[in-house]
Amino acid sequence: MKTVETLNEGLKREYRLTITAKDIDARVDEEVKTIAPTVRMPGFRPGKVPPNLIRKMHGEALSADALNKAIDAGVKDLMGKEKLRPALQPAVTLADGYERGKDAELTVALEVLPDIEAPSIDGLKLERLTVPADDKAVMAKIEEFAAQMKRFEEAPKTRKAATGDQVIIDFAGSVDGTPFDGGTGEDMAVEIGSGQLIPGFEDQLVGVKTGDEKTLKVTFPDDYPVDTLKGKDAEFAVTVKEVKVPADTKIDDEFAKSLGLESLDKLKELMKDQVEQELNGLTRTYMKRKLLDQLAASHDFDVPPTMVEAEFNQIWQQLEHEASHEEDPEAAKAELEKDRDEYRSIAVRRVRLGLLLSEIGQAHGVQVSSQEMQRLIMQAAQQYRPEDRQRFVEYVQQDALAAAQLRAPLYEDKVVDFLFDKAEISDREVTREELEAAIEADEDHVHGPGCGHDHDEKPAKKAAAKKPAAKKAEPKEDKAAAAPAKKAPAKKAATAKAEAEDKPATKKAPAKKAPAKKAAAKD
């Protein structure tokens, strides 16, 4: 194989590879020997078909397979010979005009990982803000839990439903007078004001009484998951079968027993554990932010543009998705555009921190064990249907990049924990409000070398440009129109930035050589 370097600029590399026809033909011979025992042809005993006939029968497929294997081997050899560490999978292009029986010319283009000087982890100083899980916090958690388990009780038949009440309805929906699939239902419980249904549906139930019949007029959202209903005006004929009012929930031993627990004290024990986990999570978030700020401020190196672009696209798609659910999507997207450069800076920061944490982890022997990896795979498999889980497991086990992406968040956490152990940590007890305020203090700034200000200062926050998101309708079983899942409000722009910059890029560059893309042979 002949190799010529055609580009060496920054982190970009490009090579022209020539694979000889002789090499490809030798691989075809190997393929013929491999499949010969299984080939069947009239007039020949099994396994006795002459090689020339096998070539004639399967020549095109054999040549394509041999070429792909030659390309894989050639790219692998290139990576090893040139000691290249690709940032992402190399782009392999077969030159136009290739024909069977001729030499194959390839172009291999890639970006390599930067050479990062072994990061120093000496001198790290962090403050750990802690919040005690006191009785007040525990009771607040129990009250929140009780509110989520809201009960309703029958109201007088003359009561007019109000916001917060629950109505039991039968409904039948139609568009232009024609019923549609999933548009009917019986005995559906609707809590007015919950925001679970199509915008405008719940509001029109205010004032109804038991026995009332009413026609509700609504418009399906433009992003409704059923294409035939997107943006369509619809009518729902509703029959009100019952109106219920919220029932008081007394937090006592009986409430605890209704949950299957022995007593209120036992419930408090369980809730205290949850509160402690939440507070520990906030403490860790604050410490991690400060740790990443220190690393970002003390390390500056070029990062592969394709990795930055991939990271930026991931951030931007999420932000555009959130903006599309605002009351005025176009205005929200226009506001977003003003901060495009800042989000690109965040993408650079995330990629740089991801590479930096990976370098620190490798330098100090941080690893994800096979048992931990197996748990990750099994947990991820649970999101698939039971019949598809084994295929997912096999896919991750066979695809190095998929495994790396699954492993990356856990690996990052382990490196962060390693750095916490090495840092000098001082403790300070604060309130939850103070801790949350500290986490949000620098939410509008992208830290990094040359940022030009003291990181201990708190920059003024920008006014949030977004309004709470409108509720989105999604199908639920056969009640597509009237029982959608509730959509969480979109994050404010400043908060979204803070969350983005706190998260190093999880698509870590593969430590091993990436496989080449397959190239199909042309006749």
Looking at this protein, list some descriptive labels.
disordered C terminus, alpha+beta, 42% helix, four-stranded antiparallel beta sheet, extended, 523 residues
Short description:
By secondary structure, this protein is α+β, with helices and mostly antiparallel strands. The chain contains 13 helices and 11 strands. Mean pLDDT is 82; it is low at 444-494 and 507-523.
Reported for the largest beta sheet, the result is: 5 strands, antiparallel
Distance N to C terminus: 22 Å
- Count of β-strands: 11
- Helical stretch count? 13
Amount of helix? 40-55%
Query: In sequence order, what are the helices and strands, one letter per element?
Result: EEHHEEEHEEEEEHHHHHHHHEHH
Unreliable stretches: 444-494, 507-523
Tell me, rounded to a whole number, the average pLDDT.
82
Please report which band the strand proportion falls in: under 5%, 5-15%, 15-25%, 25-35%, 35-45% or over 45%. 15-25%
Q: Structural class from helices and strands?
A: alpha+beta
Taking all Cα atoms into account, the compactness measure Rg is 31 Å
Shape: extended
